[in-house]
Write a structure and sequence with these properties.
By secondary structure, the chain is an alpha/beta fold. Helices cover about 20% and strands about 20% of the residues. It has ten helices and 20 strands. A hairpin with a 6-residue loop joins strand 1 and strand 2. Helix 2 runs antiparallel to helix 5, helix 3 packs parallel to helix 10 and helix 8 packs parallel to helix 9. The relative contact order is 0.16.
């Protein structure tokens, strides 16, 4: 059995369960029980070679109920960027684009508020008629901020980054009410679309801000029959059609029946809507495994327990009409009596996020999205390369001065592939050092922990600012290799 066989097997399950089930919202920093013979511990996967190129795509729901959420996004964006700036070397070579959830109604004509193609996956520089480009000197359809060899940065804008993003991401609330988040992303990242934004060798982060589930529809016929009633084939033309034809619950022959539902998951045989797997496969295939470019996906969305698949169908919240069924909101921010407050269970979006090793989910129903955006920034920081030991570690010999940690460190080639290969790395003569990691008398590859305040600012989880360092003895690991570290915690 490999060194990490037990811990990695548990962690794979943890990734699917999503945020909170494994002791934290960040799936790359997980407190867990690795097995009957192991104490709880800290795990992290750290790329050996730092890839500082990062493409970030914010997918912002611009339907009628999203004003407060957009304001929270832009107000807390500085905290997101502050975390990203903590990667080694500071702010990565970043491309940052903004996208709406509006791609119309799958070509259907005369659907109120839904032009046939909507924004069609085009990157946006603000709401219709905006002046962001003029106000901030932006050239092009996305933000570009790239480090130069002389220490300067080449930017395609003149104003402050957070101010520009606030202008760009304030998309307004005039978008189509049938939000096709995944289809919009799919169109935006097609070859030839939004030229220059997507770089083959860059990390890619897709961040979805939404209060309703995905309604990526293949056939405009789903939006036909505008005057249909509860007994018609399509049912009333409301957002409930997105649920009825995109989600399947257990023992639920009539989705329009009011009441609790369980075992709800994306419908893999819908006659109208695209399967979620279409978008999972597409995004995965944008990056070659082992090439050193990761995909990070994050959702700031409604609440949904994927384990039980539970949700509620009730009467329309505005009219209380039982002949207009809708999925009951799963969380609220301010006022449950406000029809624009809260968010619906994200069955399809949640399934999409959980399909990725670096996928995170956060609630949009907090009155402050600061923690969510900091956690998303941390997930991206981890993908690029985060050596910080963000846990208070167990001291295996308190009688000795200083910390005596118990950690397992492994070099891994092809970490996500069947031909995964592991090489254990021993601890240096002193496992905790204050300066650059030195091997001692052996002078062979080894690891140590040392304070690194610049990369790992002191925090409750890491008061000593410890970072992992590996002394390589002149050897260069293969491209795409990672270091996996597991340390015991109290």
């Amino acid at each position: 059995m490999s060194t990490f066989a037990m811990t990695r097997g548990w962690m794979a399950v943890c990734m699917v369960v999503m945020a909170g089930a494994c002791g934290g919202a960040n799936p790359d920093v997980t407190v867990f029980d690795a097995g009957t013979t192991d104490a709880p511990g800290f795990y992290r996967s750290i790329p050996v070679t730092l890839n500082r190129d990062l493409d970030v795509l914010f997918l912002v729901d611009n339907s009628g109920s999203m004003l407060a959420e957009q304001q929270q996004l832009t107000a807390n964006f500085p905290g997101f960027i502050n975390v990203i700036q903590q990667v080694p070397g500071g702010l990565p070579n970043i491309h940052l684009g903004v996208l709406s959830s509006n791609v119309g109604a799958a070509g259907a004509q005369s659907v109120p508020g839904c032009p046939p193609a909507g924004d069609d996956g085009n990157l946006l520089t603000g709401p219709p008629g905006n002046t962001c480009s003029t106000q901030f000197g932006l050239t092009g359809s996305f933000i570009s901020d790239i480090a130069q060899s002389n220490g300067s940065r080449m930017r395609n804008h003149t104003g402050a980054l957070d101010g520009l993003f606030t202008c760009m991401a304030s998309l307004g609330t005039s978008g189509c009410g049938y939000e096709m988040h995944l289809e919009s992303m799919y169109r935006a990242l097609q070859p030839g679309k939004n030229p220059g934004f997507l770089r083959t060798a860059a990390h890619l982060a897709v961040i979805i801000l939404a209060d309703e589930d995905d309604c990526s529809t293949e056939m405009g016929a789903m939006f036909g029959d505008p005057n249909a009633g509860i007994s018609s084939q399509l049912g009333p033309r409301t957002s409930f059609r997105c649920h009825e034809f995109g989600v399947r619950c257990q023992n639920d022959p009539n989705p329009r029946t009011l009441g609790p539902k369980t075992g709800c998951a994306p419908d893999t045989a819908s006659q109208y809507m695209y399967e979620v797997q279409r978008y999972v496969d597409f995004l995965r295939n944008l990056k070659q495994p082992g090439a050193g470019a990761e995909v990070v996906v994050a959702g700031i969305i409604g609440n949904f327990d994927r384990a039980s698949g539970s949700l509620m169908v009730g009467p329309d919240r505005r009219t209380n009409d039982p002949n207009l069924p809708e999925v009951v909101r799963s969380c609220f921010t301010r006022d449950p009596n406000d029809p624009d407050d809260g968010a619906s269970p994200p069955v399809r979006i949640g399934a999409f996020l959980s399909a990725f090793r670096r996928g995170t989910q956060h609630t949009v129903c907090n009155d402050n999205l600061s923690n969510a955006l900091i956690d998303v920034g941390t997930a991206i920081k981890n993908a690029i390369g985060n050596p910080c030991i963000d846990a208070v570690l167990a001291d295996e010999n308190p009688a000795m001065a200083g910390l005596q940690p118990t950690c397992t460190v492994v070099d891994v080639v092809n970490p996500d592939a069947p031909n995964r290969a592991e090489t254990p790395v021993p601890a240096c003569e002193s496992a905790v050092q204050t300066g650059t990691c030195t091997p001692g008398s052996a002078a062979t590859p080894c690891w140590c922990l040392r304070p690194d305040v610049a990369r790992c600012p002191p925090s409750t989880s890491n008061p000593s600012s410890y970072a992992l360092e590996v002394f390589r003895a002149g050897a260069t690991p293969p491209a795409g290799a990672v270091v996996e570290v597991f340390c015991r915690v109290p």
